[in-house]
Every structure is written in structure tokens, then in C-alpha cells.
């Protein structure tokens, strides 16, 4: 089935989206793969509901005693309906799952689960260390007051502050100082170009992003958000404040936020840095969308 996300987008931050916490007391014996019915008790009011799960939600792994959070369901006096068009179901929302793990599960659930439980056994790779250094350089470039971002200044920052911090790990990978710098030089150009183009004065020219919006302020780096409503936690590389443009209004109208967006209004946006040869894919897009949801919940879009 092809799902049009524009038509099914739910305004999660809206007070109009009902949120009901229930506990499952019985499961239907019907083996219908398309529809599943559960008898539930509301944890807040003790009211009984028949919860009907259709489409994608019918295959959700649920057992008696499971705690469910039902968001935006189609409601009657005694029934809750979740399907392609209505609502979201969160199982055991008190267990916070990392956004990266959820994103990995888009392509392969087995891979995501194994990487989570055996992450301590994975060896450090060159690409991971280079990525960590690039993250620190980029974050310093956009946050440090008075730091003029050029390729030479980034190289100097790496040599003065970061080289000693990572020296032992690169040595363990049998990488020389020069080999590491050769890898980093590629990113010096990219960081310098991005900062000089999009950051506000005095760091850059403050040109418009692809959406027509402009960055006004760096709010945080490595920001951690624990969202108990949706049951996930996020660690965002960079959180920026940007000024909403008329272009955004005209081209992203389908995101039906409960608060009307006005031209010039300031909102938050996440930046997720990806290094190496990886191209944007569904996993990356999912991760950023979850970060957007985390920030939207934080600031009550």
C-alpha cells in the first residue's frame, strides 16, 4: 500500500490530538491479519475500551498486560480505532528507545536489535573516529565567539586541541598523523563553505536555506531530549533557531501545525551531521524527522 504522508500527517503537538494510556486485559482470538481487537482499561480513568487495530497496526506485538499509549485515534464512547488514516500507537512508552535505533529498524529490524545489544563488542573504525573529530570541529566553528572559520583555523584547532585527545585511538588503528590530516582536510573545505554561506554575521553571509528560511541563532550542541510521550530519546548534533519564510508556508503547507506559522516567526531545527561516503537515505531521513518531532514537542508547535 502506498501511504501519502501529506494526507496522514498527525499534528502531534496539538492539544486536539487525544492521548489515552491503556493497559491490555484481553486479546481477540480472531486470526484476521488485517484487523486485531483488544480489550483495554484506561490507566487514568479505569474506563473500558475496545481497541481496534487495522492496517499496519494490526501486526504490532502486544500481549496481555502491555501498556499502550494511543494518540489521535478515531473515538466513540467505547471504541478506539487506529488505521492508516487515524492515530499512532506507542507500546511501553516508558521505555525510551534511541532515535538512531528506530531509524536503523526501518531497513532491518534484526540489524537494529543486534547492534543495540552488542554495541559494546563492536570495534572502533577509522570512519567513526574521523566522524567524531569532524563533529567537534563543526560544533566549535558555529558556537565559538570570535573564532574565524577558515581551513587554516580548523587545521590549527585540530592540532592544538583535538589531536592529543584522539591520538591513542588513531595509533591503535595504525594511522599516522599525516594520514588523519589528509582525511580531515576534505571536511575543512565543506565546514568553511557551509558556515560562510548560512551562518549569520559575523561568521557568514546568512543566505537562505533550501526552504527559504534563515538561521538566526545556535541554540545547543549535543542536545539530549527524552520524550516520554512517544517513547524515544534523541541526541541532536546541533539545534538551530531559524526564521520562517513565506516559501516554507507555501511549499510545506501540509504540515498542519496547531499554531499558525507567520512569516518571520522563529522556530527550532535540528542538524544531523553525516560523514564518509553515505548518501541521504530513508534511515537518515527518519532520524531527522524524529528529531523534528522531539523539538516540536519541546517547543509546543
UniProtKB/TrEMBL annotation:
UniProt-recorded Gene Ontology molecular function terms: ATP binding; helicase activity; hydrolase activity; iron-sulfur cluster binding; metal ion binding; nuclease activity
Q: Does the keyword Transcription apply?
A: no
- Cofactor names: [4Fe-4S] cluster
InterPro entries hit by this protein: Cas4_exonuclease, DNA_replication_fac_Dna2_N, PDDEXK-like_dom_sf
Q: Does the keyword Iron-sulfur apply?
A: yes
Q: Which residues form the DNA replication factor Dna2 N-terminal domain?
A: 44-241
Keywords for the protein's UniProt record, in alphabetical order: ATP-binding, Helicase, Hydrolase, Iron, Iron-sulfur, Metal-binding, Nuclease, Nucleotide-binding
Give one Pfam family, short name only: Dna2
Q: Which family does it belong to?
A: Belongs to the DNA2/NAM7 helicase family.
- Protein name (record): DNA replication ATP-dependent helicase/nuclease DNA2
Where does this protein come from, organism-wise? Brugia pahangi (Filarial nematode worm)
Amino acid at each position: 500500500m502506498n501511504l501519502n504522508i501529506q494526507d496522514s500527517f498527525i499534528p502531534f503537538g496539538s492539544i486536539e490530538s487525544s492521548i489515552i494510556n491503556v493497559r491490555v486485559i484481553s486479546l481477540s482470538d480472531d486470526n484476521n491479519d488485517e484487523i486485531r481487537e483488544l480489550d483495554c482499561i484506561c490507566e487514568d480513568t479505569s474506563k473500558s475500551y475496545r481497541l481496534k487495530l487495522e492496517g499496519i497496526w494490526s501486526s504490532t506485538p502486544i500481549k496481555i498486560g502491555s501498556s499502550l499509549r494511543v494518540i489521535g485515534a478515531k473515538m466513540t464512547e467505547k471504541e478506539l480505532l487506529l488505521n492508516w488514516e487515524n492515530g499512532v500507537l506507542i507500546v511501553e512508552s516508558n521505555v525510551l528507545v534511541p532515535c538512531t535505533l528506530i531509524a536503523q529498524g526501518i531497513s532491518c529490524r534484526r540489524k537494529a536489535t543486534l547492534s543495540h545489544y552488542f554495541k559494546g563488542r563492536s570495534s572502533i573504525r577509522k570512519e567513526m573516529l574521523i566522524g567524531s573529530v569532524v563533529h567537534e570541529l563543526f560544533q566549535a566553528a558555529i558556537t565559538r565567539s570570535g573564532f574565524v572559520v577558515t581551513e587554516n583555523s580548523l587545521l590549527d584547532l585540530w592540532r592544538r586541541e583535538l589531536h592529543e585527545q584522539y591520538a591513542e585511538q588513531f595509533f591503535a588503528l595504525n594511522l599516522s598523523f599525516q594520514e588523519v590530516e589528509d582525511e580531515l582536510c576534505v571536511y575543512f573545505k565543506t565546514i568553511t563553505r557551509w558556515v560562510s554561506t548560512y551562518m549569520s554575521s559575523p561568521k557568514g553571509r546568512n543566505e537562505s536555506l533550501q526552504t527559504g528560511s534563515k538561521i538566526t541563532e545556535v541554540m545547543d550542541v549535543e542536545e539530549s531530549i527524552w520524550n516520554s510521550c512517544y517513547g524515544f530519546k534523541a541526541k541532536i548534533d546541533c539545534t538551530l533557531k531559524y526564521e520562517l519564510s513565506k516559501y516554507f508556508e507555501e511549499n510545506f503547507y501540509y504540515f498542519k501545525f496547531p499554531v499558525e506559522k507567520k512569516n518571520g516567526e522563529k522556530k527550532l531545527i535540528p542538524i544531523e551531521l553525516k560523514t564518509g561516503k553515505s548518501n541521504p537515505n530513508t534511515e537518515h531521513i527518519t532520524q531527522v524527522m524524529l528529531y523534528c518531532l522531539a523539538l516540536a514537542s519541546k517547543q509546543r508547535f
